[in-house]
Amino acid sequence: MNCPLISVIIPVYNSAAFLTQCIESVLRQTYTNLEVICINDGSTDSSLNILDELSIKDSRIVVLDKKNEGAAKARNDGIDISRGEYIMFLDSDDWLERTTIEESYNAIIEKKSDICFFTYIREFENCSKVKNIYFEDKIFFDENECKNILCKRVLGLYGDLLKYPENLDALSPLCIKLYRSDLIKNNNIRIVDTSLICTCEDGLFNVEAFYYAKSAVYINKPLYHYRKYNPNSITTGYKKNLYNGWQNLYRLMREFIDSHECDSSFYDALDNRIALNMIGLGLNIFAMSENTDRKISEIKKIVNEPQYARVYKKLQLKYFPLHWKVFFFFCKIKFSLGLYCLIYLMNKMIG
To answer: Which residues contact 92 (CB under 8 A, 6 or more apart)?
Structure first.
C-alpha cells in the first residue's frame, strides 16, 4: 500500500500545559508516515523545551524556533518547509482522534479529492459538544459544488442554512481538514495575518481552497478536539480591534468575489455574514470593561451604520427560528436596547 508523507503543521505559542497531549495525539496516529512540523512562535514558557525533548524521542518531529510573528505567519512558514503530499493543520492546545489522519486520507483516495473535512468536538471545561457541518454520513462535492456550495458557504450562510446562524463559521476552521499539498502551493494560498483581520483567517484561506479544489469529501464524524477552555488562547477575551478587523475581512472577501467574477449569490452570502456577525460583535462588546450605557451606545453605533442598515434591510427573516427572528428584527429596526438585553441573555447562557 502506498502511504505518502503527510505534513502536520502546528504553530506553538505558550502552550506548555497542553502541548504534550497535542503532539502525542499525532505521534500515536494509526497513519504513521508523518512529518510533524512544530513552529515555536517565540514562546516565553517551556514550550520549546517540550518540543526539543519530544523531537529527541521521535525523529518525525521537526522543530522550527523563531521570533513571535503570530500563528498565521507560523503556519505559512510550516507550509513553506513542508515536504508532504498532504497537509493538515493542528492547534497546539487541541488534539486528534487516533484515526483522524488515516480516515481523512482514505476518504481522499476513495473519492480522488483535494480536500477532506470532518466534524469536531468542542471541549469545554465541564462538557463536550459536537459541532456538525452536515448531517449525512459522507458527502462528495464535485468541482462545481466546491465553488458554488462550499466556497460560498465559507463566505456566509444562505437560504435554509440561515436556520442555524451559530454555524456561520462551522466550515471555516483549518484544523478540520486534510488538504492536498499541491492545491495550496500551486495556487499560492496563504493565511492572512490576524493583525489585519483580527479573526477568521481560516475562512479566507478556505474560500480560496474550496474555489480551486477539483473535488472535496465530507466525513460526518468528530475527528478533532477543539479546546475551548484555554485562557491563553488568542480567541479568548475582549478584542479591541474586532470591528475594524472584520471590515478588512469583508473587504478582502469582496475583492476575492470581484476578481473571480462570481455571481450575485456570493455577494448575498457575504452580506449575510456581515448581518450575522452582529452576534459576535455584540458578545465582544459585552467583554468590554465598560458600563451598560457605553455598551448600548456601541451597539447603537453599529446598527445605525449604512453598511449594516443595508444588509439588515435585505436579510430574510423567514428562515430563522423565533429567537433569532427577534434578534435580527431588532437589528432591522435599530432597537439597540432590545439587542443589549438579548445579547446579555446570550452571554449568560454561554457563560
So the answer is: 10, 11, 12, 13, 15, 18, 19, 22, 38, 47
Distance CA 198, CA 75 (A): 16
Element (H, E) at 53: helix 47-57
- The type of residue at 311 is V
Cell of residue 48, nine digits: 520549546
Mean of the pLDDT values across residues 117-124? 95
Lowest mean pLDDT among 143-152, 228-237, 260-269, 285-294: 228-237
Is residue 344 within 8 A of residue 286, CB to CB? The reply is yes
> Residues 31-69: pLDDT tens digits?
999 999 999 999 999 999 999 999 999 999 999 999 999
Contact by Cβ (8 Å): 183, 169: no
Bridge-based pairing of strands 86-89 and 128-131 is unpaired
Q: The whole model's pTM is what?
A: 0.93
